[in-house]
Structure formats: C-alpha cells, structure tokens
Amino acid sequence: MAGENDLGRLLGELLDAGDSVEGDGGDEGGPSGDVLGDLLREPGGIGIAIGTELIEDLIQQLRLGGLGEQARSWVSADANEAVSGEEIAQALAPEELDEAAERAGMSAAEAAERLARILPQAIDGFTPEGDLPEI
C-alpha cells in the first residue's frame, strides 16, 4: 500500500528525470518513452504495483482539481492536452507538490511549471494502450 508521501516522492523522481521526458518538445513521449515505468522498476524504488496505484491517485486528483479532460487525453490515444503550472499547482495537494519540489531541489512554483510540461508525456508513455498497465 502507498505511503503518505509516495506521490510526492514519485513526482520528485519524475522531476529529476524530467530532461529525458521533455526531450525536444515533440509529442512522441520524449526520447525515453515510458519514463514512469522505468522509474517504478528501479531497484529500491517505489515499485510498479504501488506506482500504478499512485498514478491512478494522481489522475483522480487531477480530475477532481478540474483537469479531467486533460488527464483523460494523456491516458487515451488522443492528442495530449496542455496544462499550465498554475493549473497543476491548484490541482495537486500542496504537501505533495512541496515534497516533489523539495526532492528535486526547486521551488513549488518551478516544480508545478515543470510538471505541467512533463506529466502529459510521462502519463501518455505509461499508458500506451489507453489504460493503466495491469499488475
């Protein structure tokens, strides 16, 4: 079962891996493809089962925070809809954004801006069939 700050931890790790996700700004998911899957499979990491649960929680949180259509587009085969850092900051729980920012060594505002660029491609790469992977 996921711990209290695991989503913040996962987002922080994603921020650290952000350069490989952002790539050249193309819409093919960045050069590393399934960067979330890679992070979740790392030895000593969160793990694929807990990570998938966390991503489900993240998507639900984004939906409840007013980003339902955008989050749906990242999971589906449709084009990824963009979000702003301000929208991400409003949708995420403040403690999770703060945890992610602290882990990545940046301010919460910087983390939100970077997550706005990273999350669409990262979630899209983790859900190539339009659904979260079966565990």
Automatic annotation (TrEMBL):
<dbReference type="InterPro" id="IPR045372">
    <property type="entry name" value="YidB"/>
</dbReference>
<protein>
    <submittedName>
        <fullName>YidB family protein</fullName>
    </submittedName>
</protein>
<feature type="region of interest" description="Disordered">
    <location>
        <begin position="13"/>
        <end position="38"/>
    </location>
</feature>
<dbReference type="InterPro" id="IPR027405">
    <property type="entry name" value="YidB-like"/>
</dbReference>
<dbReference type="Pfam" id="PF20159">
    <property type="entry name" value="YidB"/>
</dbReference>
